[in-house]
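hey so i finaly got around to running the thing on Acetyl-coenzyme A synthetase from Vreelandella titanicae. pasting the sequence first so u can double check i didnt mess up the copy paste, my clipboard has been acting weird all day
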Amino acid sequence: MSDQQNVYPVRDDFAANAWADKAKYEAMYQQSIDDPEGFWAEQAKRLDWIKAPSKIKNTSFARDNVDIRWFEDGLLNVSANCLDRHLDKRGDQTAIIWEGDNPDESKHITYRELYARTNQLANALKELGIGKGDTVTLYMPMIPEAAMAMLACSRIGAVHSVVFGGFSPDAVAQRVIGADSRLVITADESVRGGKHVPLKENVDAALTRDGTDVCKNVLVVKRTGGEIEWKEGRDVWFDELVDKQSNECEPEAMGAEDPLFILYTSGSTGAPKGLKHTTGGYLTYAAMTHQYVFDYQEGEIYWCTADVGWVTGHSYIVYGPLANGATTLMFEGVPSYPTHGRLGDIVDKHNVNILYTAPTAVRALMAHGDNVMDSSKRDSLRLLGSVGEPINPEAWEWFYRVIGNEKCPIVDTWWQTETGGIMIAPLPGATPLKPGSATVPFFGVKPALVDNEGNILEGATEGNLVLLDAWPGQARSIWGDHERYTQTYFSTYDGMYFTGDGCRRDEDGYYWITGRVDDVLNVSGHRMGTAEIESSLVAHSAVAEAAVVGFPHDIKGQGIYIYVTLSDGIEATDELKKELTQWVRKDIGPIASPDVIQWAPGLPKTRSGKIMRRILRKIAANECDGLGDTSTLADPSVVDELIEHRVNQ
Ligand code: ATP
Ligand code: MG
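ok and heres what it spat out for the 3d tokens, dont ask me to read them lol
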């Protein structure tokens, strides 16, 4: 497939002005692999250390002893690196641009203001008895107080666990218990797409569950002024407590390997895992990847549309950008409100230069046609980014052409909650782009493809994606369950970190994620990733989105069952089913010929917008009673609708 792909060469202006051109990327990459100690010792200097590390790398991937440490004798404070050290040079520069759900609401917060409020909040946390090593659960809207809360925790050495504000009381309870949280920080309500979500009410409900009595206080931001219940002695108003605090709070000296946060994965494949990330390596890696992959230049306005409830929000809304002294935009709402042109309107309003979003958002916009962004010009954009799922080449081209006006490189970034930061991605001044490929490894990243026995495969080939050595941003464990960590990531192939993703490497050494290994189809002995068939369908103008799964088939072993969401205004007919079948046969080959096509008005997705194929697989196999863990599903009604209209094979 790759040979027919367009290749987008590096633009001269990017190569000339970027942090890295091709020669520099290659030299730095080589050094990072040949001499990781020297390379990362140098990179650690991008941070301010209270005590500089002398031990750099001490890591083992051995199945019986998974132990990962970076900069282990160094001392530092994350909030001081994101705030204090910028005050002299850029105290009056905007740190956070906040754009409300309502397009008439926005505000700018300078580094000095962010510093002061974070310190006040840190002092407030202390007043509530929170200290070094305590855990705090954040269940918050996309408001600046969320970033302040993360930074305030890091200032006093508390460990935050951010729970996405769309989760249910049960999910909140599970995570409060899992992390042993003394405190929950929330808001009365959040506002998304014009609708109010009762966050405080959800916390109240969560804290009635068994085992949640570890939680002693709830700190409540007044976002909407909506009516809430109040539990005297437990609940505290954010502003009341924080306003009266001093805006100086000495940053705690933290060990590089002290925990910074706990964060749960999206739950695409099973029960979410609470990953433990630590301090020095994580921040070094988040800052460095933010600088190089987005080619962030002084003074630019940078916008990542993720929620702070996901790792993307941690590393690329808060920690990476603020460590680099960037201006980071935080958006409270959703791309479809009040119109589908909202993202473009925000870009114009704040002169955004770098826009980092997800394939699910691009596909949703694409379904509304090429004129969806006509209310904006987007002239300020310089670079686009994608994360979360494989981006179908068709969606990539549309993103490039319609949103980026054919002048912005797209960095397709492959990484995971577990990796802490971007692992495989182009550098815009160095790497020619191929739509649909995350391209090449970042500095210090050693990817490999292995067969099911763990043999390393060379050259252009396809296999299971593993990482052969540690990098500083890597999660160190699953919170409270190192055994599960070892089991999940290091037991499949000894001495290697297994990503769970399937991948192809082409003749230029580019990596193409083919989908989750758990989702791989095996049709008449041919193994096929989900991405290729789905991308073929999305390339048809009638198709907005598609998901492919296997189902038990007497002759072929597995048959191909396809769920298709049509673009706006397209009629679902049997004719069209035939046409799509022919389309895939012609594009990929008869082996990929769909056995069943079901029209899907919506697809089951995680709350971060990823397709949950494991649920689609159950529906296809007519095992609708045992759908597994559905707690991370964004909209359960989608599943009922699909079950009702399931096609019998
Ligand atoms: P769980 O681990 O609970 O099943 P999850 O894997 O969806 O959930 P995340 O850590 O948010 O949780 O997602 C990481 C995964 O997302 C990757 O393993 C990969 O499958 C997919 N992914 C992320 N970025 C890309 C990308 N640029 N291209 C292809 N796939 C991507
Ligand atoms: Mg995962």
